[in-house]
Amino acid sequence: MAKITLDNLAHSYLPKPAGEGDYALKELNHVWADGEAYALLGASGCGKSTLLNIISGLLHPSQGRILFNDHDVTAQATAERNIAQVFQFPVVYDTMSVRDNLAFPLKNRGASPDYIRDRVQAIAAMIGMEAELNRKARGLTADAKQKISLGRGMVREDVNALLFDEPLTVIDPHMKWELRTQLKALHHEFGHTMIYVTHDQTEALTFADKVVVMHDGRVVQMGTPQELFERPEHTFVGYFIGSPGMNLLDAEVSGTTAIVAGTEVALGADYGRPKGRIQIGVRPEFVTLAAGDTGLAVTVRRVEDVGRHKILRYDFQGAEINVIAAEGQAISPDMTRLIFDPRAINVYADDWRVSPKSPAEEAA
After folding, report:
1. Is 227 helix (H, G, I), strand (E, B) or coil?
2. Predicted structure pTM score
3. 48 burial level (CB within 10 Å; 0-12, 13-18, 19+)
4. Where is the ABC transporter domain (predicted)?
5. Cα 131 versus chain centre, distance
6. Which residues, 6 or more positions from 288, have their beta carbon under 8 angstroms from its beta carbon?
7. What digits encode the pLDDT tens for the residues 24-36?
8. Which domains does the chain carry?
């Protein structure tokens, strides 16, 4: 296992990048702890796979260094980095049996026949392919071949890191859940450093100890699922995490109050007078319906019943505000006001979260 350090790392696919806009991966300085499971999460084209390929050695960065346990591996080939990588689409040896595909990395490293047999049997059970061990890989379905790829990536216990590049794309939905659970169990058992690339927030949040959210070639937040949900550091994180994502409204903020299109909204802390384009963000789970004169006056667009709750979509002066209402919650026509929980409101200036004043600052 390895601690992975990204030191002044950046990459451009252009031979002579002229500015920040030419970089697919903008400057990164991060330390990823030995033995933790990380998910790289973001939309297509945000730089996730570029970063993963630099870590694995398939791509040499335009600038900066990669260190494993404080040892510079930037110039090392993939084989020298002692990592295992599983790609989005299955890579298997069609002429080999499933057993030989799984055993291949261990045979290459001279492991004993008894160890290979036991380890292959354990991995086959993990991926649900014990009955197919003696079958040739040729003719298997795409999801079966991807399970072989996953198994081959997990068969070694001595790797510095396990890297997964959207490995469940071709796997059926039920098996996706099973394999995510198995990957989590593998991590708990062996403590490998794992990095898992995905654009699916469910995969990221259920797999990782820390989620690394990427947007436009940079890391905008790294944190636990709870941190990403409660305190998104960037508006993209608020929008991308959650279903629906965070409601964002243009506002003027002064101290403990925000003015949204002429309506006062109480904030849970003192934010002073932030500069730039100011927005407040609140998740649909922390918006309540009310009748009367208090709150934002809205009109309903539609109601979506998803079984365990309803998603209510409202119009507020041209902006959409989403509300999550529990199944069975009373909703009447006179409930045309929305009230935000002040403790759950975040304030943003030019898309980045503004920290509220500390109690000592407020007292001063």
Report:
1. helix
2. 0.85
3. buried
4. 4-241
5. 34
6. 323, 338, 339, 341
7. 999 999 999 988 8
8. 4-235 (3.40.50.300), 243-363 (2.40.50.140)
